Amino acid sequence: MTTESSIFVGTFDGFSWIRCEGKGSFLNSPTLKTFGLDRISAEEKCLVIDLQACTSMDSTFMGTLAGLANRLVAQNGGVLQIADSGERNRHSLEDLGLDFLMEIDPSSAKWHGALETIRAELKPPQTPSQLGAILKTVHVLEAHQTLSDTNAKNLHAFSNVVNLLESELESKQKLAEDPERK
To answer: 32: buried, middle or exposed (CB in 10 Å: 19+, 13-18, 0-12)?
Structure first.
């Protein structure tokens, strides 16, 4: 299975569903983001992220989730919900303080009782996101900036990563402007 096909999606009455199979990472988070932003633009009020088959998440993936949660609330007054987080993924989200941005395994969610039906209808997204080198760096940088903005602990934890990514982005942009520069 490719990293692109590790994200499966569906739209349902009252919510959109995004399932991650395998590791949630910087490789498949652009696809997560693209579908999520498309649904938010379509005025979706509830995005559900299904982590039942997600073995782990890196910081870029979690920063992408946080960015979607923030955008969903700001634009549509909506909510990002996590389905079947599992202990490890729940701990990762809580450790970064993201449980305050999203509902993790909400017991009253309208999709409870229909998990098998929903998962059976999921498909790979129509347009998986493939980014060039500069856009990949921008994506990873934005995810880490979102995590840093979430709380002071994250700001401290990710400050070196953000600084490194900003320098890398600047270098890539200069190279793109003048390929003769080394």
So the answer is: buried
65-122 confidence digits (pLDDT tens): 999 999 999 999 999 999 999 999 999 999 999 999 999 999 999 999 999 999 999 9
DSSP string, 81-125: EEES-HHHHHHHHHHTTGGGTSEES-TT-TTTT-HHHHHHH-B--
Secondary element (H or E) of residue 144:
helix 133-150
- Give 50's strand partners: 19, 83
The amino acid at residue 54 is C
Supply 159's token pair: 């400050």
How far apart are alpha carbons 80 and 72 in whole angstroms? 7
Who's near 146: CB < 8 A, 6+ residues apart? 63, 64, 66, 67, 70
Q: Which of 41, 28, 48, 180 is nearest to 105 (CA)?
A: 48
* CATH architecture, range 4-129: 2-Layer Sandwich (3.30)
Please, are residues 51 and 132 in contact by the beta-carbon 8 Å criterion?
no
Residue that is written with structure tokens 């900003």 in the block: 166
Spatial distance between the Cα atoms of 118 and 11, rounded to a whole number of angstroms: 9
**Would you kindly state where each structural domain of the chain is located, as residue ranges?**
4-129
What per-residue confidence (pLDDT) applies to 2? 44
